[in-house]
Specification:
With about 180 residues, the protein is of the alpha+beta class. The protein has helices spanning about 5-20, 20-25, 35-45, 45-65, 65-80, 140-145, and strands at about 85-90, 100, 115-125, 125-135. Helix 1 (about 5-20) crosses helix 4 (about 45-65).
């Protein structure tokens, strides 16, 4: 259902770009000075809230991006293990020393290649040097932890808080000498 108010519809479409209400309000024609207030008011309106939800669902169908897919990708990065990418190649049979060798993609387990951030090749006087980087684990682990409720940013309290406020009223007498 497209909203009848063109400015409201524009706001909903713009909001989907970056989920930033103030910026969406500005791009929809609201003044920069009042954009934040306007966005807060607009996002509390039932028709706008429903339209944003509808547009998100349409986008999700179109892009085939689901929450499960995002969580699976985060899990791949979080579970990445250096042993999935490198192996020690012995110099001589029975030798304790060796060198590291990057495994072939076909030798890597499951979706391990999806955790690779970059691979580069450099030619040196000693031969070809291969470098690779994995995506960092900290942010995916934090996001997964938040998803399952491990971390809380606020403390909730239920029940009554018993506080008593006593006010002492002092009567001031005006004898006419306190003129301003």
């Amino acid at each position: 259902m497209i909203l009848e108010n063109a400015k409201h519809e524009c706001f909903c479409q713009e909001y989907l770009i970056d989920l930033n209400g103030a910026k969406a309000a500005e791009r929809s024609g609201y003044s920069k000075k009042t954009a934040r207030t306007q966005a807060n008011q607009l996002l509390t309106k039932l028709d706008i809230s429903k339209r944003v939800t509808e547009l998100k669902a349409i986008r999700s169908e179109r892009t085939v991006i689901t929450q499960d897919m995002v969580l699976k990708e985060l899990k791949i990065i979080a579970e990445s293990d250096i042993q999935d990418y490198l192996e020690v190649v012995k110099q001589y049979p029975g030798s304790e020393d060796g060198r590291l060798k990057l495994k072939l993609f076909a030798e890597m387990k499951g979706n391990a290649t999806r955790a690779i951030k970059s691979i580069s090749e450099h030619i040196t006087k000693d031969g070809i040097q291969l470098k690779f980087k994995l995506h960092g684990k900290e942010k995916p682990l934090e996001m997964l932890g938040r998803h399952i409720g491990m971390f809380t940013d606020k403390i909730e309290h239920s029940g009554q808080i018993g506080t008593e406020l006593r006010i002492k009223v002092i009567k001031v007498r005006d004898d006419g000498n306190n003129r301003k």
